[in-house]
Amino acid sequence: MSDDNGSVKLAVIENKGRALISSRPLMAGEIILKDSPILVYSAAPLASDANFCSHCFRKISPHSPATVSCPNCSSLSLFCSSQCQSISLSTSHTPFVCQALIRLSAAGSPILSHDHIRHVQARFLVSAYNLALVSPPNFQTILSLQGKPLIDDASIFLHSLISSVCDSPNLGQLGFSVELTSALLAKDEMNSFGLMAPFNPDNKERSVRAYGIYPRASFFNHDCLPNACRFDYVDSASNLTNTDIFVRVLHDVPAGREICLSYFPVNIKYSERQKRLKEDYGFTCVCDRCNVESTWSDHEDEMDGEDDDDDEDMDEDDGDVDGDVEETVNGGVVDEENDDFPHAYFFFKYMCGTEKCGGTLAPLPPSDVGPSTTMECHVCGNLSKCED
């Protein structure tokens, strides 16, 4: 279920397509969107590779007395409680899914044995076709998202694999075809968000615990200096909606301004940002920051920041994006002589100082008495006082 409290609205922007813009003035730290996934699936192909619940994706201990396995596919799927198991068996982990996982684990394909990406893509397709059976409206929502299908060797292989591991009569009801499989793969690549394992400074990369497709959050476009960032609290013990994501604005935003996220850590250098955006999302970024940094020498580009490889699969992009630097630097904070680095203030105020983190800081939600002065990192979760 999505809830934006009237904060944002969908708009069409020239040369960009669909986007979310502020429908009223927004206060720093305000939660502008709470979104629940219409599809979420494991980034670890089999439960033996995972240490989290197959439904809510909280971290679990396989030896915990509350941990239960799936009655239909045994240890291929584990749940942190009987409640998660019960919900999952009627939604995301139906007999259709169990049968496919059993066959997939026994397939013995050399490609699947050595290619983690293909295995996870196969897991996505099983989940997507299951969604078509249990919730046709949500399946149609996924098909309505951005993403241009490409019928290539990978999609043909995956289509053949799914036809061999999934129940054929059920697939026949869905208009199953290589075109539909290719379309689903494109929607997933352009729109999925990674639900990340907790930050660990001893690891170079944060692992992705699960991927989710969120119906409203998929409309956020990218900016290399975002005015919002998203938070998830997968290991929260408060309720069964811990796969929800929350998007908060970094600073005050006027009505009518586009709200943008960064699809990866903001400290990645210009050349790497452009490469990843082109390869993963199919566009060249011409935001204000990129326009400035495109004129720098290679040495200056390298000094822009270290690539933190904290990869978060984000949402779709409908084209090139306009920057939002003006909001983050006006008010006379940045010296006029610093024209070659106009986004310095962004890094000073919104870049997490935790070693090897690379996260973005956003104020905690404002209270009735005004904005919060406490900043929260969306990667490591550390709290710090706002420094002006």
UniProtKB/TrEMBL annotation:
* Annotated Acidic residues bias: 299-322
What segment(s) does the record annotate as region Disordered?
A: 298-322
User: What's the domain of life for this entry?
Assistant: Eukaryota
A Pfam family assignment: SET
Q: Where is the SET domain?
A: 6-264
UniProt cross-references to InterPro entries, sorted A to Z: ASHR2-like, SET_dom, SET_dom_sf
Q: Which PANTHER family match?
A: HISTONE-LYSINE N-METHYLTRANSFERASE ASHR2
What is this protein's record name?
SET domain-containing protein
Annotated source species: Castilleja foliolosa
